[in-house]
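G., before I forget:
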Amino acid sequence: MNQHYPFCLPPLPYGYAGLEPFLDQSTLHFHHDCHWKTYVERLNEALKPYPQYHAMTLPQLLIQAPSMPEPLQTAVRNNGGGAYNHEIYFSLMNRPNQGGQPTGQLRQEIDRWFGSFDQWKQQMKDAGISQFGSGYAWLVWERDRLEIVKTSNQDTPDLRTQFPVMNVDVWEHAYYLCYQNRRPGYVENWFCLIDWKRVSQRFEERMENRGADFL
Ligand code: MN3
């Protein structure tokens, strides 16, 4: 997340077969090598004529986007959002966790704000399934509490007030090759791919930097 223009496509933190059997190699090839890559390339193209934005990180660009001139504003929202959202999604999955659950501070906050891990899971699942059309379901830290939010297309949560803890991509391109129209089956299996160690670490780092510009 500390990159700035020109942005590079980050490699997957696992092999293309690393998420099988829940997401197959074809899905990961298309999703990483085509979809995510295209967002990064289009973001770079859009930013090229605007050197005043070349030192900004993705979160900084997304926060600044509403004050940018058109058509840059729309390009950053869509392609900058696509680059940012996919980096979070892919970096927080790993080989099937066989029903693993969060521990430590994140687990305490999940229990505190959702009642239990199972209740959180159900609400997160419902959010992913009920997002109309393309988008994401997110677990965010909103000022002083955990919340589940949904976003459309490549919109991000409001990065001025919401720290994205994790997300699930519910665009059809994320699951169609494996699941066709069965989004609920994909979302259910996504829980088996969550890298709780990384998610917990990300959350705890954010908590230690409360109030700091850390997205
Ligand atoms: Mn996607």
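The longest helix spans residues 25-47. Residues 31, 35, 86, 169, 171, 173-174 surround manganese (III) ion (CB under 6 Å).

More on Monday.
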